[in-house]
Write a structure and sequence with these properties.
The complex is a heterodimer. Chain A is built from 12 helices and no strands. By secondary structure, chain A is mainly alpha-helical. Chain A has 2 domains: about 45 residues; about 220 residues, MetI-like (MetI-like fold, Orthogonal Bundle). By secondary structure, chain B is an alpha/beta fold. The chains are: A mainly alpha, B alpha/beta.
């Protein structure tokens, strides 16, 4: 066996055949994009003011982080760490909005799902609010809260709460009533029903709701930061563009996408796998 | 000893929101079931069997008549009346063991003690080795065994069953009927089984309540005095006593099914 073959077998063992194939197939478009980018730089089709060379983007990080002192500086958001501060600011806001929005969205969703009266009150206003959720609120939020954290938080909460609320509501309604009845006849209380029937029964929808709300929320945040923010990746892109620092714009855009990809693939998808798929509650493509 | 279950003068109407005409489902039903007795309710489709079971389970409020379990009026669902439903009513997000122990968990039994008890019932329904499986990994028959074990494990005063084997294939049904006979004999559990299958009623029941077509009234009560340990399909199929009782019930039910095949 030649070394190439044994290397290929070792790699296949490490990742698993299926996964390796998926990774390879999934990276084809990225490799094509990167090659095009590289060719553009080499052949000078479009000048660097439109498409900067890859190296200058790495360089942009080190310039932005110029006065930053190590991991400690990054974590304490030292004012010198221009780039990581923007990243952490965006992440922190999404995190805060999730911590505030998810429990309320799920709680009201479960409540409305099990009680007609609550859903009669909340559903119409929810449909109304959902239609204008996201960036449509930005101008108004700026008038109300000014530029800064409150505005972006408001935009995020508006997006996250309603999406999670609606998905939870639909999830609870889809739970067969025989499951509720069976737990009632075992002596289960209302609280037992909520935690042991409605919540797990609605989990497939809730996870979908969280994925959707994080996707939309992340986009809304970036937009809100551009117009009504004072920090964050959206803000960074906007400022960099107005100063014609195209490599910083590229950096921001790529990092926004990478963060989302990482969150979805390594946090949300595994949650789905370990709950919903394990219980046989979603159709699994073969 | 007073009967475990007493139903007196129970009637039920379903209001119809659209036509305004009420559906008269049950009419003046009175029956009782003594401790340790396996009772079966047979009747044509739509005669109100499920309605009766839901009222007994406390899932459907009633206004005319009385229902008492252990001398106490039924006012809502409770752990004294365990129910095995027709559809798969075990929770998909709980393993076999956690489904079976669910009632004990609700009652607040300590986890060590609960595990021991659950294991006992896992063995009773022949599911050893499947404790950590999720319901979607089980066959229809196995799911119903889990449902049966879950109900028995919570140790209700009476077990109510609504066509528990209607959704499984004929072979599995025969096995499950024999197992249900063995298990209720072993646990001495007072049971009320609802079925439209005359063979099933005669095979399992010590006492068979035959219902008329809608509105369901009690038409006849047939006592079947065959010892429980003799109830094995292979033997009963040729047992003159069984055949006689089954034919008696069959005739009573046939009279209620209209010649057009509808109810
Ligand atoms: N929720 C309901 N609302 C109105 N009518 C109902 C309702 N449930 C049942 N009925 C009617 O009451 C009658 C009795 O129904 P039930 O389900 O108790 O019959 P059943 O004996 O269990 O029938 P089957 O053997 O087909 O299961 C039927 O005519 C049915 O249409
Ligand atoms: Mg029925």
């Amino acid at each position: 066996m030649n070394p190439v073959q044994s290397l290929s077998i070792a790699v296949q063992k490490l990742f698993g055949r299926q996964r390796l194939r998926r990774i390879i197939l999934g990276s084809i478009p990225f490799i094509m994009l990167l090659s095009l980018w590289r060719m553009n730089t080499v052949n000078e089709w479009l000048p660097p003011v439109f498409i900067p060379p890859m190296a200058s983007i790495i360089e942009a990080i080190s310039i932005l982080q110029d006065e930053c002192t190590g991991i400690g500086g990054i974590l304490t958001m030292n004012p010198g760490c221009l780039f990581t501060n923007h990243v952490l600011s965006s992440l922190g806001r999404v995190g805060l909005a999730l911590i505030l929005g998810l429990p309320f969205g799920i709680a009201f969703g479960v409540l409305a799902g099990m009680n007609r009266r609550v859903s009669n009150v909340l559903e119409p206003i929810g449909v109304f609010a959902n239609a204008i959720s996201g960036i449509a609120w930005v101008p108004l939020a700026i008038v109300w809260f000014g530029i800064g954290a409150m505005t972006t938080l408001f935009i995020l909460l508006n997006t996250i709460f309603w999406l999670v609320f609606f998905n939870t509501l639909l999830g609870v309604r889809s739970v067969p009533s025989v499951l509720e009845n069976s737990v009632l006849t075992l002596g289960g209380s209302r609280w037992n029903i909520i935690t042991q029937v409605y919540f797990p029964g609605a989990l497939p929808s809730i996870v979908t709701g969280i994925r959707m709300s994080m996707g939309f929320g992340w986009r809304a945040l970036i937009a809100a930061e551009m117009i009504g923010g004072d920090s964050g990746l959206g803000f960074m892109i906007f400022v960099s563009a107005s100063e014609y620092k195209i490599e910083e714009v590229f950096l921001g855009v790529i990092v926004i996408a990478l963060i989302w990809m990482f969150t979805d693939r390594s946090i949300l998808v595994p949650i789905e796998k370990w709950t919903v798929q394990r219980w046989g509650m979603v159709w699994r493509p073969s | 000893m007073p009967p475990k279950l007493v139903v007196q003068g129970l009637s039920h109407h379903y209001p119809d929101e659209y036509t305004g005409e009420d559906v008269h489902a049950l009419d003046n039903v009175s029956l009782d079931v003594d401790e340790g007795v396996f009772a079966a309710v047979v009747g044509p489709s739509g005669c109100g069997k499920t309605t009766l079971l839901n009222i007994l389970a406390g899932l459907l409020p009633y206004s005319v008549g009385h229902v008492k379990v252990d001398g106490i009026d039924v006012t809502g669902p409770g752990p004294d009346r365990g129910v095995v439903f027709q559809e798969h009513a075990i929770l998909p997000w709980r393993t076999v063991a956690r489904n079976i122990g669910h009632g004990l968990e609700i009652q607040g039994m300590a986890s060590e003690e609960r595990k021991k008890k659950v294991q006992e019932f896992v063995e009773l329904v022949n599911l050893t080795g499947f404790e950590d499986r999720y319901p979607h990994e089980l066959s229809g028959g196995m799911k119903q065994r889990v449902a049966l074990a879950r109900t028995l494990c919570a140790d209700p005063v009476i077990m109510l069953m609504d066509e528990p084997f209607a959704a499984v294939d004929a072979q599995t049904r025969i096995t499950l009927q024999e197992e249900l006979n063995r298990i209720t004999m072993a646990t001495k559990k007072t049971t009320l089984l609802i079925t439209h299958n005359v063979d099933e009623a005669a095979f399992l029941g010590d006492k068979c309540f035959v219902f008329t077509r809608r509105p369901g009234k009690l038409k006849a009560t047939i006592l079947i005095d065959i010892p429980r340990d003799r109830r094995v399909w292979k033997d009963l199929l040729h047992d003159p006593q069984f055949i006689e009782k089954r034919d008696e019930i069959l005739t009573l039910v046939r009279e209620e099914v209209s010649p057009h095949g509808d109810d």
